[in-house]
Amino acid sequence: MPSSDEQPKLPKFFDGTPPQEHSSRWTKCWEDKWTPWDRGGPSMALYDLLKENPSGAIPLPSEGSPKTCLVPGCGRGYDVLLLSSFGYDVYGLDVSSQALDAAKANAEKALAEELYKTEASKRGAVNWTCQDFFAEDWKDVQGPFDLIFDYTFFCALPPPLRPAWASRMKSLLSPGGRLICLEFPSEKGSSEPGPPWAAPPIEYLEYLSNPGAQPQTDKYGGVIAEQTQSLAPGGLKRLVHAKPERTHESGMKDGRVQDYISVWSHANE
User: Which region ranges are annotated with the description Disordered (predicted)?
Assistant: First the structure.
């Protein structure tokens, strides 16, 4: 890989790589300590959602009701630590062992400096696990999960992997559980290369409403809005969809929030 002042942008680095081999490219980024997607801190959109909990849509942990959480593609684990501060027992999952080494170092520093205020009666347990999200034979991980948080994971996957992403999310979400997505980049066009690939709200809605199904797409892999399907009986339904008041700088443009945040449950609940 080139030196830091010659680093290619992510789309160029991934160009021509088959979707099934993308995990090796992400691992290479971590090995070379090149993480241009890193936000440097937790999602304030997620924090605000959990604090406000509109209509009680999100089951929060309590003294007599512990809850588990999964953050796939956790990177340095900022959101893992945030969710732990709300009392969830959290699994931070990444395909790169180097990412998890960085997460452990970040966690040690953050907790020593008390960067995360405890928002529940007690802080939840933090677990780091090096796994392939799509593998069915995870080791040392107990699922399904009461909460799953997806941010810069969906958009990191090339469109051909999105049906499998939705199917896996459904299988990992426990009965009564919630999937939270911070939708990014919501205003990018499907013709623009990734990662991150375009992730407007229609993409999440179509794939999660029909997990495992391949929707009608344009030649770039973007969902065609005029040809969407209705919610399938075995799909995930959207309970909350809103623009957060705060988000990462990458989700802003000219002082305007571009990201959306959404909450999903099983369709039969």
Answer: 1-24
